[in-house]
Structure formats: C-alpha cells, structure tokens
Amino acid sequence: MNNYIALRKANRMRTKLLTEESQAQLKEVIHYLRRVSWDFCGIELVRSDLLDISIQANAENQELFHSISDAKTFVDEVKPSLKTLRAGDYFWFVAPLYFFGWGVEGLILYPLVPGWVFEFSLGHLMRLVVAMAAFCGLFRRMMEQVGFPPREHWIKYIGWLVLYIAALYGTGWCFTKLAGSIVLLRLPILLYALFSLLLGAGLYGIQLWRYGKDPRLTTRV
C-alpha cells in the first residue's frame, strides 16, 4: 500500500481514540500547518507524533495542550522542520483542484447549455500559468504570514486573499483581451467536463504516488 495513504489512514483511526478536546486541539494545529507549508508528508508525521503524545496524555487525564500558548509554541518550533517545497511540488497540489473545478463547472453547465463548445485559447493557457504562479508565490506568502491561531489574524488573511484574487483576475482579464482569440482546443461541454475530471483524477493519483515515495515515511509505516 502507498506509505502516505497508510499513514494517513492510521492517523485518522487513532484520532478517534482521543478526547473531544484533544481532537479539537490536534485538528486546529494540523489544519494550520497544512495551510502554511503544504508539506503533507511531513505534516502526517507530525500528526503521528502528536497522536502518541495525546494518547499518553489522555491516559493520564490530561489534554494534548494545556493552553493556546502551548500550541503556539509547538507550531512555531515545528514549522522550520517541515520540508521547503519547490514550485513543481505546488503544481501537483494545485493542478488537480483547477481541473476538478472545471469538470464540475462543465457538468453544471451541460443541462443549461448542452450545445456550448468550450474553447481553450492561448489567453486561457496564460491565465492558467499565472494562476499557478500566483498560488505558489503570492498565496503561499499570504498563508505564511498568518500566525497561530489563524482566527486571531483574520484581517491579515483577508487582505492577502483580496490581493491574490485581484492579481489573478486582473491579469486574467488582460490575457483574455490579448490572446483570447487564439484558440488552441475546442471541446463540446460534456466532453470538456469529462476530460477535466479525468485529468484532475490522474494528476491527483500522481500526487498521491509521489507522496508515497517520500523517504521520510519508510521508517514510520
């Protein structure tokens, strides 16, 4: 079995052994680390370690963290140990999301406009490249600036999010005007939806396969 999937499955099963409070604390920490690093293999290893600590603490009638400051100290210490990802690593995370989104969009539009033909232009391609770059650069920068716990830094989060959306749609509008008429591919709406869903699923499968090959998992699974 894929090492990453096996560890993630084991972590989910072990989480059910914790008290509700420890589960909530663990969830908040892991969700935060996932947002600021996207090193999913490293985060699953951190979750496994926290589960060991939590199970022992619960056996002694204690929770995972005594206070929010303890959790903050923990995440500040563990963040530097997570793997620094390259641009290609972010591509494998972001690309399936885009294609799944386009596939769902196509399925929703098909009953409404069954005769519509999707035209993939050079402008669309340029928008996709910018979307990937913006996510890997600006959006990542945004999340790294959000401290723990995230709910105490929501104004900064919203500010970076607005900047990300403005950069994405602003450049997208420009590229559509410049190169929207240069059509590279035409697909009927249903074929477009199915193609996007299959491509998204294939990229997601490659993503999981790459995670399973992470050498850090071999000693834990």
Describe the structure.
- The chain has helices spanning 3-15, 20-37, 40-59, 68-78, 87-109, 122-144, 154-179, 189-212; strands at residues 117-121, 183-188.
- Helix 5 packs across helix 6 and helix 5 runs antiparallel to helix 8.
- The protein has eight helices and two strands.
- With 221 residues, the chain is mainly alpha-helical.
- It is elongated.
User: Low-confidence runs (pLDDT<50, min 5 residues)?
Assistant: none
Q: How many strands? A: 2
- Kindly report the spatial arrangement of strands forming the biggest sheet: 1-2
What structural class do you assign from the helix and strand content?
Answer: mainly alpha
Q: Summarize model confidence as the mean pLDDT.
A: 85
Bin the helical content.
over 70%
Number of helices: 8
Q: In terms of quaternary structure, what is this? A: single chain
Short structural description:
This protein is mostly helical and 221 residues long. It has helices spanning 3-15, 20-37, 40-59, 68-78, 87-109, 122-144, 154-179, 189-212; strands spanning 117-121, 183-188. The longest helix is centred in the last third of the chain and has 26 residues, at 154-179.
Summarize the topology:
Elements: H1 3-15, H2 20-37, H3 40-59, H4 68-78, H5 87-109, E1 117-121, H6 122-144, H7 154-179, E2 183-188, H8 189-212
Helix pairs in contact: 1-3, 2-3, 5-6, 5-8, 6-7
Structure characteristics:
5% strand, mainly alpha, single chain, two-stranded antiparallel ribbon, 221 residues
